[in-house]
Amino acid sequence: MNPSAIFAIVVTVLAAIAVVGALIFVIVWEVCAIRRILADHRRQTQPPGSYWSDHAALTAPHRRP
Predict the structure, then answer these.
(1) Which end of the chain is less enclosed by CB atoms within 10 A, N or C?
(2) What gap in Å lies between CA 26 and CA 20, rounded to an integer?
(3) What are the domain boundaries of the chain?
(4) What is the per-residue pLDDT for 58?
């Protein structure tokens, strides 16, 4: 067998392994991101409208007795 053909086969196999590895990495990353988003969504205790009332930029000054 020609050495250039062997080299081409080896490069092709290594490229295929890299593509499959990258695909597996992306799929696992997306599954973890979806699970994290769902877990954060389940842990929400406050209604969405109360955020701005709790974090107001301007507040009334406290009265001294």
Answers:
(1) C
(2) 10
(3) 19-44
(4) 65
